[in-house]
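Fold it.
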Amino acid sequence: MRTSLSCPSSGRGIDQILAEARARLHRVEPEAAHLAHRRGAVLVDIRPAAQRAANGEIPGALIIERNVLEWRFDPRSDARLPIAGRYDLPVIIFCQEGYTSSLAAAALLDLGLHRATDIAGGFAAWRQAGLPSFGPADVYAIFNAAPPAQRA
């Protein structure tokens, strides 16, 4: 069976979807996100655990993987976080490079969270800016630091 690669007339490519999402956001640079977080904005890491382990984390960021984000922040949801009971909550989403986070922030806008946005460039830009972060953890650091007699 042969499949068609022609786009249906109603279809949009991911580049168009991303551009439309970003057109609705007031994206912030890492430094501005850091200041907003210090003033009370909720910083949300939507990266999977393996990506956080491989690249590091931002102290104080909530870890909410992408697949449950809307349920945790919708003020109408029974599965919402305790802090997510209002539509004016400033939420700043980040992923590794700032693509998935734009789509996620737009989804929060669709829920009515009108102050949702994301970090331009994601965690990679945050780290490059020299902002507070930790990891990735060196899983061998403790082993390598032990005196040779204690190594198994």
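Strands lie at 42-45, 62-63, 91-94, 117-118.
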